């Protein structure tokens, strides 16, 4: 019995440790030299789940969180930057001051997992942002609507919408625990107070 309790305790401790995300010092950045950008969102994907012969009945819409976002500096577009992410949010707290744009969005969800490179016809200004040293930017909530090429009953479309200020207070609250006791803490608390 003691062995079972010890094993159960070890499992519980491992579960808690795996569930906690810690950041490396290089990923945190310094507000005196870096800006902080927060992005969140989801993808709504029409997925084939049946084969009844009736195309209008074979597809359902599944929702998946955006798992990660890649940005690039407009002045240096060949350098992709990967942010920290969890639970549908991606953030960059170590961006050098400048203008950036979203380049790729990764969506993960059973049975859909894909990286989506933004096409040329997407308005780049919607997903472009500027950040200053010590600045906090909430880009917004990205909504992607995808209809696969394999669905003859629905128009083959990809639509991206950016909803600003949808969940901004909650978004900053969700990353606060990772930045408590860092130089970003007072700035995040101030932004949370402004958006509550």
Can you walk through the features of this model?
With 196 residues, the protein is α+β, with helices and mostly antiparallel strands. The protein has one domain. It contains five helices and ten strands. Strands 1, 2, 3, 4, 5, 6, 7, 8, 9 and 10 form a ten-stranded mixed sheet that branches. Helix 4 packs antiparallel against helix 5.
What labels describe this entry?
single chain; 196 residues; alpha+beta; 5 helices; 10 strands
Task: Kindly summarize this structure in a few lines.
This protein has five helices and ten strands.
Write the layout of secondary structure elements.
Elements: H1 2-19, H2 25-28, E1 35-48, H3 55-58, E2 59-73, E3 76-82, E4 84-86, E5 89-95, E6 98-109, E7 112-117, E8 128-131, E9 136-146, E10 158-163, H4 168-179, H5 185-195
Parallel strand pairs: 1-9
Antiparallel strand pairs: 1-2, 1-5, 2-3, 2-6, 4-5, 6-7, 6-8, 9-10
Helix pairs in contact: 4-5
């Amino acid at each position: 019995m003691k062995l079972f309790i010890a094993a159960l305790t070890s499992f519980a401790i491992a579960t808690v440790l795996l569930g906690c995300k810690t950041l490396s010092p290089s990923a945190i950045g310094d507000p005196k030299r870096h800006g902080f950008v927060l992005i969140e969102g989801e993808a709504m994907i029409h997925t084939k789940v049946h084969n009844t012969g009736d195309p209008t009945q074979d597809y359902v819409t599944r929702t998946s969180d955006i798992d990660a976002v890649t940005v690039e500096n407009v002045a240096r577009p060949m350098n992709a930057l990967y942010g920290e992410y969890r639970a549908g949010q991606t953030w960059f707290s170590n961006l050098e001051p400048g203008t950036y744009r979203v380049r790729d969005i990764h969506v993960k969800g059973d049975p859909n997992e894909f990286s989506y490179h933004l096409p040329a016809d997407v308005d780049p200004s919607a997903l472009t942002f500027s950040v200053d040293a010590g600045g906090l930017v909430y880009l917004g909530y990205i909504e992607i609507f995808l209809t696969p090429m394999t669905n003859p009953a629905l128009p083959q479309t990809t639509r991206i919408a950016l909803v600003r200020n949808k969940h901004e207070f909650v978004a900053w609250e969700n990353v606060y625990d990772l930045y408590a006791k860092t130089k970003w803490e007072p700035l995040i608390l101030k932004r949370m107070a402004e958006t509550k």
